[in-house]
Amino acid sequence: MLSLAVAQDWPIHQLDVKNAFLHGTLSETVYCSQPTGFVDSAFPSHVCKLNKSLYGLKQAPRAWYSRFAAYLIKLGFVEAKCDTSLFIYRRGSDTVYLLLYVDDIVLIASSATLLRSTITALQ
Q1: Number of domains in the chain
Q2: Nearest CA among 44, 66, 40, 43 for reference residue 53
Q3: What is the mean pLDDT of residues 72-100?
Q4: Are 94 and 114 in contact (CB under 8 A)?
Q5: CATH code of 64's domain
Q6: What's the pLDDT score for residue 25?
C-alpha cells in the first residue's frame, strides 16, 4: 500500500483509535462479576450483564472489527478479498485504501481533499 502511495504520489495518513475495544457491540450475552469497589451491598452476589465490549474479553477484537467494518461498508468501502483488513473505496477517479490493524489505521487516497473527507467521516 505504501509503495502504491509513493508511486502515485498520493497522500498518506495514519490514525489510532482510542479505546477501540470499548466501541464494540457484543452479539452474544456476556456476564461478569461486579467490579471491586462497585459491589452493590444489597446484592453482593449479583453479576453484571455487559452491553458493550471490554478489554480482556475474548470477544472484544471481533466486536470492534465487526462494528468498524460495517461502518466502512456504509460509507461505500468494499472489503478486499485477498486481505480482510484492507478496505477499498472507488468512485470514478477517486480511490481510498484503508488498512486496519487492531486499532491502527493507515489511509492513502488519490487526493488530499478525499483523504481529509475520509478522515472526517471516520471521526
Answers
A1: 1
A2: 66
A3: 95
A4: yes
A5: 3.30.70
A6: 76
Quote the domain boundaries for residue 41: 2-122
58: nearest Cα among 90, 24, 87:
24
Summarize pLDDT for 51-77 with one digit per residue, the tens: 777 777 777 788 888 889 999 999 999
Closest by CA to 100, choosing from 68, 67, 74, is 68
The cell numbers describing 12, all together, are 498518506
| Whole-number Å distance between alpha carbons of 28 and 9 | 45
Query: What residues contact 73, with CB distance under 8 A and at least 6 apart?
Result: 79
The β-bridge partners of 30 are: 50
Average pLDDT, the chain: 89
**Cα 9 off chain centre by:** 26
pTM of the model: 0.80
Q: Which three cell numbers stand for residue 121?
A: 467521516
User: For residue 18, what is its C-alpha cell?
Assistant: 482510542
Residue 34 in this model has a pLDDT that exceeds 80 = yes
